[in-house]
Structures are given as structure tokens and as C-alpha cells.
Design brief:
- 2 copies of one chain form a homodimer.
- Chain A is of the alpha+beta class.
- Chain A contains 16 helices and 23 strands.
- Chain A has an 8-stranded mixed beta sheet with strand order 6-9-10-22-21-20-17-11, sandwiched between helices.
- The radius of gyration of chain A is 30 Å and the shape is globular.
- The two termini of chain A are 51 Å apart.
- At the A-B interface, strand 1, helix 3, helix 4, strand 6 and strand 7 of A face strand 1, helix 3, helix 4, strand 6 and strand 7 of B.
- Strand 23 of chain A pairs antiparallel with strand 23 of chain B.
- Chains A, B: Belongs to the class-II aminoacyl-tRNA synthetase family. Type 1 subfamily.
- Chains A, B: It is found in: Cytoplasm.
- Chains A, B: InterPro entries: Aa-tRNA-synt_II, aa-tRNA-synth_II, aa-tRNA-synth_II/BPL/LPL, Asp-tRNA-ligase_1, Asp-tRNA-ligase_1_N, Asp/Asn-tRNA-synth_IIb, AspRS_core, GAD-like_sf.
């Protein structure tokens, strides 16, 4: 339908000698010896259109008046370009369209920045004129990729009998988790809805209702301070099923992601994805979302150095901690003493008191702490498989601090040393998560995932006695060092749910106030169930090779949670506030 | 995956003599002569499971302990029921499962209402225990239908190159349209986001960005007083395309709906759908969303009665109004004089001063106004095709009041007289809408659709001089008397958009403040574009044969915009309000 017969970017061999009609935007107009060439652009790409006054004087005159970003409808004949005119950098570079008709559908002012892949425009101006920014081929492709990803996921889940069921956006504020966005109720003064941080409870209730398999690709909200890969609103691929094991849910997730990889990247991933326990990941990579595209694992040297006369190591070990090392192969010359000071400073952000290091030279280990380690240098070299030119760094502290520090150093060095094969997509399951984390600020245990996660059956006795020992039937899926998503079996009895809430510090009163309806629901034949939630923004970001989710969201907010285009958020009328029974207490920013 | 081999409701001939495993809920348990029969239910339906102590004493004992809504896993062999045991009212009624294993996966308290199709439970308790309410077969089926409808629509639009692109939920409040739900910004004190009433401007900007074809099945929000078919949040099938005519967009919409009818109802609808202008619909049916499943059209008698000596008619005609009639065939005996008084009262809600009426008897027209019409009774009988036993009602007032009154009477009588064939699905396009409606309360023209609707080209000159004369390139799709959705071509030049906003009473300043970013966008090569938005809730409601959208929403709000299950909206902590820089001024309800 419509006049267009083919998209500009899809003009191909089968159109040769055909009369076609195109609709698109002027990417570029050139006049070469009285003949006008217009690169016409639509969402699929660009094709060259030729206006020769000998073919149509009238079309030539109109083409001559066109400027960048004019919207045109053009009819002409597809022709093979001569050998020397072929543009191998263009998908349609073998062809051109000899135009005999042209209509200007709309004109355009000169855009504030040029519509090119490598724009020099800053983030703010790109967001202010987002509709122009999105015309740039890489942005258009990012959003088309996103659409293809969601389509693939939906079709997969549809085919596997998952039902797409919508849950409310106007929900109830709960104290667990991040800060809620609130929505004042007009009808109920002093009362507020909260926008969902996730449809967690609703999807569990859908299992209770018997829908058996549910999914939703759904917006979620968190009023947190923003970072590179955070937005006030984000999109979650939300999946829940009854009567399945964690392994079943993981298998569906893998097959779904394999489908996405095949249909959007043309890549056959190997199934099943590797699995690693949380303990192992922390031990070997110092991270619960390890990037396994490169090695440089953490090496435990606690045993090796247990007798050396170096206070830092001794203190760590005496306090029940560990001494671990990273070997940055061949990196000794990349890092000066000053660079190492910087790295040491970086390490201190993660709680380390410093970063001890050695360089491997022809005549042995060199560096500030080498003198303490002479007795064990052979063992260190053996354990770290060190060779001349390697840089070895040490962490000595509690297991947690060493993991956090060396994990971060590992990631940073990989980037700095260009160790990462960017063509790889390394999926990885992290299983057997701890049920709780101790929150030192709040002085209590908090959920590592959320309060509805099912503990491992054998650990249930520790819920009251030693929560740190309780592991969960929980799993995260990691891609290239990013947490793509996480899931778990959920608790399906009231008794166990109450126990877990109690461990989290809930009194009977507060648990009934906040989660009473869930607790009650657990008494009416709640089926065993579990699920997973994946971050769509992050998945598409990684597939698109971008490093900020803003690049795969049509209309994101900036770093201050503002939309520079529409100026949201904005002030509102006094009547609006009056009707909502609220008053602003402070208007300064 | 999982242990289940087949859904309860899908046990069929091909399972005969197979050993199958089921998972589901106890719908009913009976003990007949020492054999236990359990009707086991899952989302697909019910199957009868038989526990015979001679097959397994242990399974029999466990089955004996089961109560309603217990969650079971059962393994057994599928067997043909004996002729006399066949239950023709059950999909699986020819079969039963001889169980040899059973596991209780969860127990259940006695539900507050029974899980049956015809529940006597009230709306509030159904919403409070929504997870139980949704276990009722008709509710389960409604939501499965909804999932199938969205799936069908998505697949259709995917196949036709529409891209699924997400737009923001945290947007900007605008004064046009209904009341916004607001979201206070924590980072920007005194500033508010608004939840979208529709992604209208964003989808237009996506056209400007060149995406060519867009869709989204998206939640929208309106803080309005609730009615039967209104909820604070509702779901819109949102479609926009560039370079297409209204007819193209209508054709896509028709094909999409035909696909839905085929795949969910097994009905082949006839394409194209009939079209009627807005003027004709108002003239013939007194409604912009006529239910064409029955006749009883409005008949214009202005010419016939122009000389009769009846003041009510004369006044109406002298004031430029009309006299129209409805003929309720054969209904004379259904309506007593008292009933007619009630109808007359009902009519007055729509602005009518009363409802004149006649009954057709053997010896002519009878009734309070018959005496005025003796001279023209033959003509009236001819024009209304009246026969003995008919009830004829008259409206005499302005065109608008007569349309509103007789339109409402027509719909009410059809229901009361059972004139509607409930198996029919009558789709209808209403085209050529007025661009504006005069709002008597506000004393200005308001948009009949929205301010971005493209006027008919020939009417543009009237924008400043006589807005009432301006018709729009707008269209609504109507199903069985309900507005399913509406769309239009949109304005794609700044000049015309400014003219329309001016007619709506915007000053240059306010239009720049509210819509400045759109006006600016219109200057950068905005393509001709248009679209449509359909109400998903209403579509599914009509397909499900329900008369309230609550019945097709998983977790709706009640008539007071409350969720009786989670108790949203709720009070929040003082810290939450402090962080948002707002104060509650009134907490009374």
C-alpha cells in the first residue's frame, strides 16, 4: 500500500530495469556537470538517484531546488552503475535510479547537526532533536534491532505457550528494594500509587491463578540516581512458570537467547550455556557477573605466602582473609610506577588498603614487595604461570574485599590492555546465589535477589540461626560481564515466606501490612513456580555493540532524568496540584 | 519440560491408553462406592481422574485427603469412559485418567467463594481475591483470549513491517485532553512528569525520525471519573505510518481485525468494512458509533409535519431544527403509558424536552399527539413503514439534540426489545469527522479527535472564519455500537499546526510552551503521516461477550480506582514525601 514500491535501502538486483517509486529524505545532493545526484535515505538505507535534464527537465529543476533532509517521492528506473561508479561501501552501491518524476513532500531547515553516523553533536543536542538523531543510520539500526529482538522473544514465548498478560502500572509502594516513583491519587487524598519496579508479585499471583506460563515485556521504574546504564524507566522481559525446575527455566531462557542471537546476529551459540556457582565466580573472577571473554583469573596464593614475612599478607590471613593475585600477561611494560600508583588508588575504591605488585624480569620478580617474597618466588611464578614481562598484582584482605578489588582491576586492565575479543558473546549462568547479603549501613540482612526467592531446601534450618549460610535457588544470566537478568524459584507456602521476611527484619505487623495479600494468597493452593527477568535495554545494548543503554532507547532521559526535547518534568498548574491535594514544599533545584 | 505431559483440559483421543502426568487444582472430589473421582483443573480445562484402591491403595489414600483447590501432580493411564459415563458438557468428557501416582504439591484453605463459572461473589470480593477469581474458567479464558488477540495483532503488524518501538511513560503534562496522572520528580523539586494519555506526539516524532511504520501495544492513563468501561489505566494498540492514505491505514486495520476474528472466533468477516460519514451516522442513527446489528433508524419527518398545528414540532422547525421519528416495530404492546413516561424522562437526559409518541392501531394512529397529526397520518405511516402494533417516537429539536435523544432511545429499546443478534460482529468505519466540537462550558472550539488531526484540504480556509465547517481526515472504527478506535492523517507542517492551535484558542506563547518541540520538529522534513489507535480492553471485552472491561483485565481497579487486593493507593512514609518535596494538604476522603 502507498506509492512506494521498494525501500531505498533495499533496491537490489531484482529491481534492475524496473520502474520504482521511492520515498525518503535527501541525505546528500551533488551537481556533477549538470547532472544532479541525490542520495535518498529511508529506514532501510540509501540509494543514489540521478536527475538528468535530458530525461526530465522538470524533475531536474525540482531536484535542483532540494536541500538536505527534504522529503521526496521519486519515480525512476533502476540501472546498473558502471564498473568505476560502483560504491562498495553502500548496500545499494551497484545500482542507481534514473529519475523521471519527483515530488517534494516536505521541505526542511538545515538541521542543527548533520545526519551522519559519526556525529560530533553532544548528548544534549542529540536528545533535544532526538527525531533527527534517530535518523542517523546507527540509531535507526539500533531501534530496528530492538524491535527485532522483542519480536523474536515474543514469537519464541508464544510458541512455547507462555501467555502475554498485562499487570498494573498503578500499584502499591513497598519499602523493599529501590526508591519508588509515586503517583498521587486525586480520589483518595493523601494516598499514592507507586509505579512498578517489577511486576514480581503480580506475576506470582498469575501463577496462583493457574495461568501456568506468563510473560510480559514491560516497563519498570526506579527512582535512583542515574548512571551510564541506568534510566528512570527500563524494560524488562518478564517470565514466570509453574511446575518447572530452575534448569527448565534456564533451558527456555537459553533457547530464547539462542533464537535472538541467530535471528539478529546470525550467530549459532552453543547450548547449554556454561554454569558457575556464585562462590566459584567470586573466587575465580572476583565478580558475580564475570566477563569470560578473557582469562586473567584470580589465583589464590594464601597457602603459598602463609609463612612470608610481609605484614600486609600476614594480617589478612590472620584475620581469616585471603591473598590472591592477578597475572597481567606481558603487561609489565605497559604500567609505570606512576600508573601502578593510580591503579592502587583505584583499588582503594573497593576497600583495599593498597595494591601490591611485582614485575617478572629475566632475573626474577622485581618491585616494591619483591624482597619479602624471595623464598616463595618460584612457587608464585609456578602458580601464576608467570613469564618474563608479566605484571602480577596482589590483593590481601577479606575474601569480599579481595574479590571486589581484583575483580575491578581485572576488568579495567582487560580494557586498557585490549584483551577482549569484541566479536564474542559469552553467556554464563551464575547459580547457587546466597539468599541474603548483610547490609552494613542498615545493620541487617537484605535479599540478594528479593524476598520471594526460594532458599535451598537444605539451608532452611539456618534461616533463623545463620542467614549467611543460606543459599538460594536463584540464578543470574551474564553476558560479557553484564548482568542480563536474574531469576529464581519462588516461595510457595506462607510459613516459609514468613520465615524469610522475619530474617529480613519484618515484624508480623509490617509483613502483614506490606505483603499480607501475598501471604494470604499463599494459603490457597499456590503452585510451585519460578521465573526470570531480563533487562531488554542492556541486552539490545550489548547486541548493538553500544556502551550506553541511551543508544538503544528511542526517547531516553539525560543524566539528570530530564527530557531535553519536551522539557519533562515540568511545573504544573496550581489547579492540578489542588486537585491532587498536594503542595510543593521546595522549588529550588 | 517439567513433569507434565499434557494439560488437563487437552486430554484427547491421541492420549488413549497412554501414561500421562497432569498438574492442576482439585475442582471437585467425590467418593463413589469407595472409588475417588477428582476433577483436576488447569488453564486449559478439566479432566476426571479416578483413584481406585485396587489400582493403588497409597494413591487412593492421598486422594482421599485432598480438598478443593489442592495442587496435585497425578500420573495415570487415559481410558475411554463407558458410554453411560460420558459427559458431553466437558471437553474431555469422553475420557478419564486411572491414577496410580499422586503428589500433593500444595494444600489450600477453603476459598471465600467457589471456583465456578457462575459465581455469586460480589465485585469487591472477586477483586480482593483476584487470583482465585481468575481461576474461574470464564476469567481464565478471557485472559487467554486477550493474550491470543495481542499475539495475533503483533504477528500481523510484524509481518507488515511495522516496528515495535517503545515510548516514554514519564512524559510531560499537557493541558489538552483529559486529566493527567502526575509523578513528582525527586531530582527537580516542584517539577512533575505526567503519565501518557497516549503516545501521540512521540509516535509522530518517530515518523519524523523516518521509522516509516510503528506500532506499540501500550498502557495509557487518564485520571478521570470511572465508568463501567473505564479504568485509570487502559491499553492501546497504537499504529502510525508515513506516506499512506487514510484508506491504506483503514485497509491495514481491517485486515488486522479480520485476522483477529479468524484466529480467535473462527469467523471470516467480509472486507472491506462498510463506511459511513459522520454526518450520515448522526442523521440515520443519532450516534457517531452506531450499532448496525439492528435497524430502527431515525426517519426525518420535518418535511411531512412542516404544516401541522403542533407547537413542539413548529418551534423546532422554526429554530432550524428537525423532527425525526423512530419506529419500534411491533413494540406498541411492550410499552404502557407509564413506560412511555419513563422513556420520556430518559430522553430528557439528552436535552430533549419530552418524547412524543404514537401507537399504530387497526383504526389509525393513537396517542397523546395523534390529534395534531390526522392530516399527515398517511404520510407518517408511509414514511415510517408503520404497521399495526408499531410504536413510533418523535424527537423535535435541534439536529444535535434529536440525534442524541433518539440515538439513545434507539439503543435502549433494542436492548429492552431484544432486537440485537448477539452473534453478529458489525464493524463500521465512521469517516469525515468534524475537526472541532464547540464546547459550551469552555466557550471555545475543542478538537473532536486531537489537535494534530489533519483537516480536509478544501476546508483549511475555514479554520479562522468558520471552524464548524472544517471537516477532518479522521476516521473511527466502530464495533457493535462501541468505538473501538480512531485515527487520522496528522498535520505535517508548522504553519497548519499553528493555525489549528490558534483556532483552539492557543496564543503563540502557550503553543510554544506546550508544543514548541513539535512545532520545531515540523520544520525539519516531517513526512506526511497518519495512524490509528484501538482500545485493546474494549476489543477483547466485545470478543469475550463481556460488558465490562474489568472482566478482561487481570488486575483492574474497582469503581473507586482502588485495588482491594493490594490496597493501592496507600499512604506512604514521611521520608518519601520529604524526598519528593511535596506535602499532603488534605487527607480526608
Amino acid at each position: 500500500m502507498g506509492n512506494r514500491t521498494v525501500y531505498c535501502g533495499l533496491v537490489a538486483k531484482e529491481n534492475l530495469e524496473q520502474t520504482i517509486t521511492l520515498q525518503g529524505w535527501v541525505q546528500k545532493r551533488r551537481d556533477l556537470g549538470g547532472v544532479i545526484f541525490i542520495d535518498l535515505r529511508d529506514r532501510e538505507g540509501i540509494v543514489q538517484v540521478v536527475f538528468n535534464p535530458e530525461v526530465s527537465q522538470k524533475a531536474w529543476e525540482i531536484a535542483d531546488s532540494c536541500r538536505s533532509e527534504y522529503v521526496l517521492e521519486v519515480t525512476g528506473t533502476v540501472r546498473q552503475r558502471t564498473e568505476e561508479a560502483i560504491n562498495p561501501n553502500m548496500k545499494t552501491g551497484e545500482f542507481e535510479v534514473m529519475a523521471n518524476e519527483i515530488t517534494i513532500l516536505n521541505t526542511a531547515k538545515t538541521p542543527p547537526f548533520s545526519i551522519e553516523e559519526d556525529t560530533k553533536a553532544g548528548d544534549e543536542i542529540r536528545l533535544k532533536y532526538r527525531y533527527l538523531d534517530l535518523r542517523r543510520a546507527n540509531m535507526t539500526e539500533n531501534l530496528m534491532l530492538r524491535s527485532k529482538v522483542t519480536q523474536t522473544i515474543r514469537h519464541f514465548l508464544d510458541d512455547h505457550k507462555f501467555l502475554d498478560i498485562e499487570t498494573p502500572f498503578l500499584g502499591k509502594s513497598t519499602p523493599e528494594g529501590a526508591r519508588d516513583y509515586l503517583v498521587p491519587s486525586r480520589v483518595h487524598p493523601g494516598h499514592f500509587y507507586a509505579l512498578p519496579q517489577s511486576p514480581q508479585i503480580f506475576k506470582q499471583l498469575l501463577m496462583n491463578a493457574g495461568f501456568d506460563r506468563y510473560y510480559q515485556i514491560v516497563r519498570c521504574f526506579r527512582d535512583e540516581d542515574l548512571r551510564g546504564d541506568r534510566q528512570p524507566e527500563f524494560t524488562q522481559i518478564d517470565i514466570e512458570a509453574s511446575f518447572l525446575t530452575p534448569e527448565d527455566i534456564q533451558t527456555y531462557t537459553e533457547q530464547m537467547l539462542a533464537d535472538v542471537m541467530k535471528k539478529t546476529q546470525g550467530i549459532d551459540v552453543t547450548l547449554p550455556f556454561p554454569k558457575m556457582t556464585w562462590d566459584e565466580a567470586m573466587d575465580r573472577f572476583g565478580s558475580d557477573k564475570p566477563d569470560t571473554r578473557f582469562d586473567m583469573e584470580l589465583i589464590d596464593l594464601s597457602e603459598v605466602v602463609k609463612d612470608v614475612d610481609f605484614k600486609v599478607f600476614q594480617m589478612a590471613l590472620q584475620n581469616g582473609g585471603v591473598v590472591k593475585a592477578l597475572n597481567a600477561k606481558g603487561a609489565a611494560n605497559n604500567y609505570s610506577r606512576k600508573d601502578m600508583d593510580h591503579l592502587s588508588q583505584y583499588a582503594s575504591q573497593f576497600g583495599a588498603k593498597g595494591l601490591a605488585w611485582l614485575k617478572v624480569e629475566e632475573d626474577g620478580l622485581k618491585g616494591p614487595i619483591a624482597k619479602f617474597l624471595t623464598d616463595v618466588s618460584d612457587e608464585i611464578i609456578a602458580k601464576t604461570e608467570a613469564q618474563v614481562g608479566d605484571l602480577i598484582m596482589f590483593g590481601a584482605d577479606s575474601f569480599e574485599v579481595v574479590a571486589a578489588t581484583l575483580g575491578a582491576i581485572r576488568t579495567r586492565l582487560a580494557r586498557e590492555l585490549d584483551l577482549i575479543d569484541q566479536t564474542k558473546f559469552n553467556f554464563l549462568w551464575i547459580v547457587d546465589w546466597p539468599q541474603f547479603e548483610y547490609d552494613h549501613e542498615e545493620g541487617r540482612y537484605v535479599s540478594a535477589h528479593h524476598p520471594f526467592t526460594m532458599p535451598k531446601e537444605a539451608d532452611i534450618p539456618y534461616l533463623q540461626t545463620d542467614p549467611a549460610k543460606v543459599y538460594a535457588q536463584a540464578y543470574d544470566i551474564v553476558l560479557n560481564g553484564y548482568e542480563l537478568g536474574g531469576g529464581s524459584l519462588r516461595i510457595h507456602t506462607r510459613e516459609l515466606q514468613e520465615q524469610v521476611l522475619k530474617t529480613l527484619g519484618f515484624s508480623t505487623e509490617t509483613m502483614n501490612e506490606q505483603f499480607g495479600f501475598l501471604l494470604e494468597a499463599l494459603e490457597y493452593g499456590f503452585p510451585p513456580h519460578g521465573g526470570i527477568a531480563l533487562g531488554l535495554d542492556r541486552l539490545v545494548m550489548l547486541l548493538a555493540g553500544e556502551d550506553n543503554i541511551r543508544e538503544v532507547i528511542a526517547f531516553p532521559k539525560n543524566g539528570k532524568a530530564l527530557d531535553p526535547m519536551s522539557n519533562a518534568p515540568s511545573t504544573v498548574s496550581p489547579l492540578q496540584l489542588y486537585e491532587l491535594n498536594i503542595e510543593v514544599t521546595d522549588t529550588e533545584e
